[in-house]
Design goal:
249 residues; binds 2-phosphoglycolic acid; globular; 8-stranded parallel barrel
Length: 249
Amino acid sequence: MSLRLIANWKLNGSIEFNHQWAEDFFKNFSGSNFKSIGIAPASVYLDHLIKVIGDCGIEIGAQNIYEEESGARSGEISATMIKDLGCKFSIIGHSERRLFFNESNKSISKKLNQANKNCVMPILCIGESAEENQRNITYDALELQINEALKDLYELHSLIIAYEPVWAIGSGKIPDPVEINSIHKMIKDVVQSRFPKVGLNLVLYGGSVNSKNASSLFSQENIDGALVGGASLSGKEFALIANVLNELS
Ligand code: PGA
């Protein structure tokens, strides 16, 4: 699966929003490669959105899954459940989950395992904090997150990594695309050399992506696509980003 552009709607949306978003997106999207696009709504709307989007090829996935399959964990959802609904992917380890829900690399590793077992494509988020960035230890911070997330997994059929500097999320600031490109190259090298049994498909960039900065990002060799938060809440704006990706790939 080559999901290159994923909308992360976070804690936003409604039944009406799903309908309006789809109308705006389809009116403005000029490409035909629907299969490269994914949407992650709040989990209560997964089933509804699957029906609204129909069978054009756009994939619907979750923003999070639990680290086990079933049991006494009120409020959680599992990889098996989202698979049952028809979801093909789940975001795992988003920085907001690490920050506000104390998600550890150990728990993220278990979630990757659950996704793998259920053939749900994991979109693993990694990224340095503002402080790590200022201290020039971005590479070390990312390597640590990759190692901790992957070291206990014997095998991972497929994986997409989203590099999301925490300080770039929702801030309107993005790193220099050339810098992002070299970080993506480093991520690919680390995973391929240290974890040969992990099938790394793509490395996406996330953090303040919009239709204006999209071409400067997508023209870089190792930026395979994007995970988009705020700008994905408008069906039109997200379609414009998808159009840029289409033109450049
Ligand atoms: P943003 O969020 O596009 O609003 O910066 C990206 C994300 O958190 O995945």
